[in-house]
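Morning run. Coffee first, then this:
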Amino acid sequence: MSATDATAGLFSSAVSASDKRRALRTGLASGELQRWPGAFSPLAAKLIADVGFEGVYVSGAVLSADLGLPDIGLTTLSEVADRGGQIARATDLPTLIDADTGFGEPMSAARTVAALEDAGLSGCHLEDQVNPKRCGHLDGKDVVPTADMLKRLAAAVSARRDENFVICARTDARAIEGLDAAIDRARAYADAGADLIFTEALRDLSEFEAFRAAVDVPLLANMTEFGKSELLTARQLSDVGYNAVIYPVTTLRIAMGAVEAGLRELATAGTQLGLLDGMQHRSRLYELLRYADYNDFDSELFTFRLPGETTTETIS
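And here it is:
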C-alpha cells in the first residue's frame, strides 16, 4: 500500500464532493433503492458507511435535538451547514441534508444552496411549510401557496453551481390539503426543477403506490418511527418503485434509548459492569476511527499501541 493509499480519508473524505454528487445521481437512476440512515454525528456516518448503506442523511429534527432544541425552525443556516459539512467529510458516501424552508425568503433559499455546496453536501431538501416550520409529523403545521414554493425552488435551482447537486422538494400538503393536492404540488415542483420529490406523512403503502403512479420523477420515502406513516420495508418501497428511503431519527433514537437505560442502571447499581455486553468495544471504536492508519502515517508522532500489540500501553 502506498503512503497516499494509507492516508486517504484520514483527515477528510477520500472522495471529492463533486464525485459524491455524481454518485448520488447515479444511485437515484440505478433502479435500486438508495437507503440513507440519518447520522447524528460524523462517527455515526462512519458506521453507516461501514455497514454498507448507499448514503447518509442529516435530519433537521436530529440536528435540533442534538442542540437540545425542538424541531420548530430554531436552527440557523450556519449551524446546519457546519454540522452537515462535518458529517459529509467523515465518509465517502453522498450526504443529503434537511434544509427546512431554506431559512427565509427565496433569496435565503438560494444562499442556503450555495452554503451547502461549499460545505461538501451532495444535496438538500426544501419544504413548502410556512415559517417557522414544524416537524412534519406534528399537527398544526401549514403550507405556503404553491406559487410561493415555486419561487423558493426557482431561487434554489438558480443558485446551484454544481449541476449534480440534488435539490429535493418536500411537500407537507398531504396532512393539510389531502393526497391529490400533494400530488399536484409535487408535479409543479418537478416542473420547477426539483430533482427528487419527498412527500411527508403518507399514511400507508397504498398512498405510496398512488404517489408513484402519479409522479414521474425520483421519489424519496420517509420511514420515521412513531409518526403518521406506516413503517414499510425496503423491499416494499423498492417494489412500488421508490428511488430512496431515509431513516432520519433511527440512529439517534437507538443511541438515546441505550444511553438513558445505561445511565439509569449506572445510577442504581453504582457500576457499569452490567452494561458492558451492550457497549461498542474500544477495539471496534479504534477500528472505525482508523487508529492504526494514523500511527502508520507518522510513527514518530503517533507512538501509541492498539489492543493486542505487545509494547507500551494503549491510550485511555
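The CA atoms of residues 81 and 115 lie 7 Å apart. Good start to the day.
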